[in-house]
Specification:
Trp Operon Repressor, Chain A, alpha/beta, 3-stranded mixed beta sheet, 7 helices, elongated, Alpha/beta knot, 2 domains
């Protein structure tokens, strides 16, 4: 998989995309992530990439020309399965979206900044808009890092125990069951006996029951269309 990220502040992406699971996935050759500075396509001594918006409202808008030129250069080298814009009014990122994106080969992600981007970019260049929540950030970089993390961890080989990702919350519209580790007792608080039984069938049954119980209690909306 290859992910190209377009940003006016690429430094914001350096740390989250170079540690932990993403770092290991890159070292294994499972994913390539390239961060492109939109300012390299800006004009003038200051490499301008933003301007005042028509209509007179406050806030600067990311201009279409540098974004178009950068995207066009990248598209000359390969075809992209999705060109994503991180936007608070896009579709909400969930596990199903991440699952779908993890099956693609080439993804481009545009990070907005300032007041937003020239709407013609969204109309003519973007194929999908994604939000990580109903709130506004200073830019799309943190949101793009979230998307990358949610995708890369699903790539075969990214996690040493691949079955771990399959038992994560939201994979089956359920929250994950409680998890415990040693010691079996601490301050009088004990790990459930069934988890110490060594009986895979009983453990699996307990996990399913607890996952359903927690989902009904904490996120009942997940069960509305699941038939559970």
């Amino acid at each position: 998989m290859r992910i190209d990220i377009l940003s006016v502040v690429p430094q914001l992406l350096e740390s989250p995309l170079n540690h932990s699971i993403i770092k290991r996935a890159k070292e294994k050759g499972l994913v390539e992530i390239f961060i492109h500075d939109i300012r390299e396509y800006g004009k003038g001594n200051y490499r301008q990439v933003d301007d005042y918006n028509y209509g007179g409202d406050a806030g600067m808008v990311l201009m279409i020309e540098p974004v178009y030129n950068l995207m066009n250069d990248l598209k000359k080298e390969r075809e992209y399965d999705e060109i994503i814009y991180m936007s608070p009014d896009g579709e909400l990122l969930n596990q199903q979206v991440s699952n779908t994106l993890s099956c693609l080969d080439n993804i481009m992600i545009l990070c907005g900044h300032y007041k937003g981007i020239d709407h013609r970019i969204r109309e003519h260049l973007i194929t999908r808009e994604i939000s990580i929540g109903d709130y506004v950030l200073s830019g799309g970089e943190i949101a793009a890092a979230v998307v990358c993390d949610s995708i890369v961890r699903l790539l075969p080989g990214a996690i040493s125990d691949e079955t771990s990702a399959l038992s994560d919350s939201f994979q089956d519209n359920l929250l994950s069951p409680p998890v415990y580790t040693r010691p079996a007792e601490f301050n009088g608080w004990r790990v459930p006996e069934v988890l110490l039984s060594g009986n895979p069938k009983l453990i699996s049954q307990w996990q399913e029951e607890k996952a359903l119980e927690r989902t009904r209690l904490l996120r009942p909306n997940l069960l509305e269309n699941s038939g559970k």
